[in-house]
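Re: that backbone. Tokens:
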């Protein structure tokens, strides 16, 4: 059985103690794709985190807090209403770096595409409206509403995985890719020109998408295919590893 690692998010309510949790839609989408989701806590000790990491076949980078601007060489803007969690950044960036170094399949969703971009040397818009990258809000509820078109390059891994080059997506973000990480390829755009899909050509399966396909996977085939593609790539990688072990 393929195991997909998913890092939990810290949160605390006024009447509740601190918790680690994540929207169920991610787990449902992974399970529907034929895999098991392994929730990963925010583990401060790299050795303990690595122990957990060794159990996974693929990594899902979900949505969540804004990436701390210092990670891409910027100062936080007071007018961009940032919500950051440096402890989450530390753990998630470490997982992403390990996965890329080891060639694990990776799917980045919303914050996840931004994490991928920063790990690969790129930068972010701290708020697309405030900084003039978009003339309207890209944070539009409800979570499963199809609010704008996504134009996907036909020759991309993203298009092949989704089985489509022109889809309508949901939009629940106020940040986005500004300068593309050097090793990444931009392969999908919103109508106003924001980069909303990336891939890493040097790897078999590393994709990032700015929308939230986990919220759409039960009704949109292209969204479900992102998760089945992640799992299929992990199965292929495991099979190749098993064949290599058998030959040796």
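Recovered sequence:
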């Amino acid at each position: 059985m393929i195991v997909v690692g998913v890092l939990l998010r810290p949160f605390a309510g006024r009447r509740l103690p601190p918790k680690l949790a994540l929207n169920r839609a991610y787990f449902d989408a992974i399970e529907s794709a034929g895999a098991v989701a392994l929730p990963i806590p925010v583990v401060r000790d790299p050795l303990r985190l690595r122990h957990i990491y060794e159990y996974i076949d693929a990594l899902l980078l979900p949505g969540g807090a804004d990436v701390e601007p210092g990670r891409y060489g910027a100062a936080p803007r007071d007018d961009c209403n940032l919500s950051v969690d440096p402890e989450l950044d530390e753990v998630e960036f470490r997982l992403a770096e390990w996965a890329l170094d080891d060639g694990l399949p990776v799917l980045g969703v919303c914050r996840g595409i931004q994490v991928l971009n920063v790990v690969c040397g790129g930068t972010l818009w701290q708020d697309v409206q405030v900084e003039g990258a978009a003339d309207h809000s890209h944070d539009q509820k409800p979570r499963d509403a199809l609010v704008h078109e996504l134009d996907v390059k036909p020759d991309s891994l993203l298009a092949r995985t989704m089985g489509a080059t022109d889809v309508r997506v949901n939009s629940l973000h106020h940040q986005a890719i500004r300068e593309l990480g050097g090793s990444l390829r931009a392969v999908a755009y919103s109508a106003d020109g924001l980069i909303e899909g990336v891939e890493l050509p040097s790897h078999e399966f590393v994709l990032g998408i700015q929308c939230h396909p986990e919220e759409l996977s039960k009704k949109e085939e292209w969204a479900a295919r992102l998760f089945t593609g992640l799992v299929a790539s992990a199965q292929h990688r495991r099979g190749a590893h098993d064949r290599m072990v058998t030959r040796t």
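The mean pLDDT is 95. Residues 113 and 208 are 4 Å apart (CA to CA).
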